[in-house]
């Protein structure tokens, strides 16, 4: 099957922002103007197409990245709408991994908010070119130029204005297009589909000249002809200007800035034109790199239909009608429905029974996908998020995804006996869909523990259990995901000997434990020489250590950031076994942890509170009482913004306390920052609770 749209006309984009900046509304307008929907959906009345889960429609926030395909002026655009709430950062992360470009939406009043900075950093890590859309220009307090300054200051980007607003707040009418040098005005009829091109308003001409010059100057850095014309004061053609600015955007040297109000249908068509003009096609991004299986040798896959196929699974979703859907991005080659593929990450062969193109939660079956496409497969049993799907004759393993560690846990129990059987299966399905959500069983209490990125994250998981799987569950109080580690390097020795007549058990292990840098994880080194421990017993020793690390000796929390070296030991010709060395390794590690000065680590959160001036003293006092450190304060749009770091353990229930302390006028955002040792006074309380458990 031939391509419907040439590869150079394909765009794979994301729409990202802070919560409530208007991402989903902007996407709804894009779908309306590209003809995918015939009625505009609104977030506030729960009819938005992209927010397809029931909880999303109720809460008015986007939880999972809904993917949809649309066409604009002979260009195919795959759009992924991503959540702005920090608890769903994994959704943003996995979307950016497979996108080529993104639209960053900013609120004209709030400007660059904490989650805006987080998603911007994620996009920078994946080298994703961006254009900015300053939304809600009709809101009271809208300040376009202030948002641009915030972008320069906080995001450290070279923000270049491609449009200037005509009017603001209630008086916002349209924009001046600095490339075309004319005004575009919407009169409000026909849902904004109709607009007029007019002369630039007299009172804006001076400002337009100033910003047009900045625009041409930015282009001149990427085109010598434009540089010459700019220096000589000559006119630069529109085509040359667009080509140079596209080059600058793709090189991540500039961020083009546009504006409008998606809710009032102003500025969306011009934003679509900008997506086509300035964001990359799959041909503009470097060929994807990966490793050949079972080797460190690098391999490259060109973005061509005739290359061996390689794709990355970036999302798993359960569909009530077709079962498991695996969303994937094709980097090279073509894949037909019904064909066998090789999952090189798992080393398993699988069959794609059907390929579907998604429009939010509706499906359209297609026969084939090409290089640069995003689609969903039905029938893949083993593939999970981050797996590579490739040609069995030309295997490659693409770089996977960074999965954040959960910071909060709660115990969950089924309400009835019938729920008991369904709970485990349902939780496993949700864990496959969302890699930042983890499920484990507490061996001592027999409770099921679920862990995630925040209170809202786990609240929605419990909600989904009831709605999608009809499982009623009750949950305990949130628990902080503490970790354990050691302060100093130590050596330890353990012997496991059991003589019971007949064949006994014998394992003797000497280990050295050293603290690693925070975030380095576990490292195991084998320094056995001369055969004091045979090779076949080294793996069991490591496995014994790993099992012990699941529950530390200080308070029963997982152990992290430790380097363990096995350097000596002994064995018995008859009595030694894998089990004996596994137990000896575990005993030795526990002994070493006790000697090494155990430390309990707790998650510290970045907390930003936006508060009216008169309540600032109360808010700062409250943060300090929560063991918080206030890092700074600044004025923003009539409010004070307080930035601080606070231990997660002291932040439960904060939203209720903040509301009552500020008459509901303050808001806050919180995201994980780092782990640090728990103070001694707090440690005693935690260890006492652990002993009771």
UniProtKB/TrEMBL annotation:
HAMAP family assigned: EF_G_EF_2_B
Keywords for the protein's UniProt record, in alphabetical order: Elongation factor, GTP-binding, Nucleotide-binding, Protein biosynthesis
GO biological process: ribosome disassembly
Keyword Nucleotide-binding: yes
Domain Tr-type G: from-to ranges: 8-283
Protein name: Translation elongation factor G
Short name of any one Pfam family annotated for the protein: EFG_C
An example Gene Ontology molecular-function term: GTP binding
Natural source organism: hydrothermal vent metagenome
Family label: Belongs to the TRAFAC class translation factor GTPase superfamily. Classic translation factor GTPase family. EF-G/EF-2 subfamily.
């Amino acid at each position: 099957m031939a391509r419907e749209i040439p590869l150079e006309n394909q765009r794979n984009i994301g729409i990202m922002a802070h919560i409530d900046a208007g991402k989903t509304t902007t996407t709804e307008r894009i779908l309306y103007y590209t003809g995918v929907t015939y009625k505009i959906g609104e977030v506030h009345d729960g009819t938005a197409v992209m927010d397809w889960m029931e909880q999303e429609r109720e809460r008015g926030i986007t939880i999972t990245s809904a993917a949809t395909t649309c066409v604009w002026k002979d260009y195919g655009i795959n759009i992924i709408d991503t959540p702005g709430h920090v608890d769903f950062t994994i959704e943003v992360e996995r979307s950016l991994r497979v996108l080529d470009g993104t639209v960053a939406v900013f609120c004209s009043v709030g400007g660059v908010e904490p989650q805006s900075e987080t998603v911007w950093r994620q996009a920078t890590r994946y080298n994703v070119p961006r254009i900015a859309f300053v939304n809600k220009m009709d809101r009271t307090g809208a300040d376009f130029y202030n948002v641009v300054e915030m972008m320069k200051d906080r995001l450290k980007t070279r923000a270049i204005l491609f449009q200037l607003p005509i009017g603001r707040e209630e008086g916002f009418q349209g924009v001046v297009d600095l490339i075309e040098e004319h005004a575009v005005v919407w009169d409000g009829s026909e849902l904004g589909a109709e607009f007029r091109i007019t002369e630039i308003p007299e009172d804006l001409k001076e400002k337009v000249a100033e910003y047009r010059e900045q625009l041409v100057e930015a282009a001149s850095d990427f085109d010598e002809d434009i540089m010459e014309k700019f220096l000589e004061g000559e006119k630069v053609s529109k085509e040359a200007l667009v080509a140079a600015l596209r080059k600058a955007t793709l090189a991540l040297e500039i961020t083009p800035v546009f504006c409008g109000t998606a809710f009032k249908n102003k500025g969306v068509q011009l934003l679509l034109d900008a997506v086509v003009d300035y964001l990359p096609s799959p041909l503009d991004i470097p060929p994807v790199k990966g490793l050949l299986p079972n080797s460190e040798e690098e391999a490259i896959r060109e973005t061509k239909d005739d290359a061996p196929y390689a794709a990355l699974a970036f999302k798993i979703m359960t569909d009530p009608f077709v079962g498991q859907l695996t969303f994937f991005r094709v980097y090279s080659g073509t894949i037909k429905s019904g064909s066998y593929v090789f999952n090189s990450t798992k080393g398993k062969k699988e069959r794609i029974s059907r390929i579907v193109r998604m429009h939010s939660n509706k499906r359209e079956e297609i026969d084939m996908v090409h290089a640069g496409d995003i689609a969903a497969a039905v029938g893949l049993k083993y593939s999970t998020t981050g797996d590579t799907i490739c040609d069995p004759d030309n295997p490659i393993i693409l770089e996977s995804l960074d999965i954040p560690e959960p910071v909060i846990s709660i115990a969950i129990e089924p309400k009835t006996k019938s729920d008991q059987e369904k709970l485990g299966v349902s939780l496993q399905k949700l864990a496959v869909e969302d890699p930042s959500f983890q499920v484990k069983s507490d061996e001592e209490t027999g409770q099921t523990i679920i862990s995630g990125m925040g209170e809202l994250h786990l609240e929605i998981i419990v909600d989904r259990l009831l709605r999608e799987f009809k499982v009623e569950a009750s949950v305990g109080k949130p628990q902080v995901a503490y970790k354990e580690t050691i302060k100093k390097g130590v050596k330890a020795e353990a012997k496991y000997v059991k003589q019971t007549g007949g064949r006994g058990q014998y394992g003797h292990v000497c280990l050295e434990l050293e603290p690693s840098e925070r975030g380095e994880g576990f490292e195991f080194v084998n320094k056995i020489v001369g055969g004091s421990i045979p090779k076949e017993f080294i793996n069991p020793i490591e496995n014994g250590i790993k099992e012990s690390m699941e529950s530390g000796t200080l308070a029963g929390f997982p152990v992290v950031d430790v380097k363990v070296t096995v350097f000596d030991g002994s064995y018995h010709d008859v009595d030694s076994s894998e089990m004996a060395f596994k137990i000896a390794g575990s005993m030795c590690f526990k002994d070493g942890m006790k000697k090494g000065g155990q430390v309990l680590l707790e998650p510290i959160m970045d907390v930003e509170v936006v508060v009216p001036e008169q309540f600032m003293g109360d808010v700062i006092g409250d943060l300090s009482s929560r063991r918080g450190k206030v890092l700074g304060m600044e004025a923003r749009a009539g409010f004070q913004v307080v930035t601080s770091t606070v231990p997660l353990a002291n932040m439960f229930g904060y939203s209720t306390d903040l509301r009552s302390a500020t008459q509901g006028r303050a808001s806050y955002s919180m995201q994980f920052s780092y782990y640090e040792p728990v103070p001694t006074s707090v440690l005693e309380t935690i260890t006492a609770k652990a002993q009771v458990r």
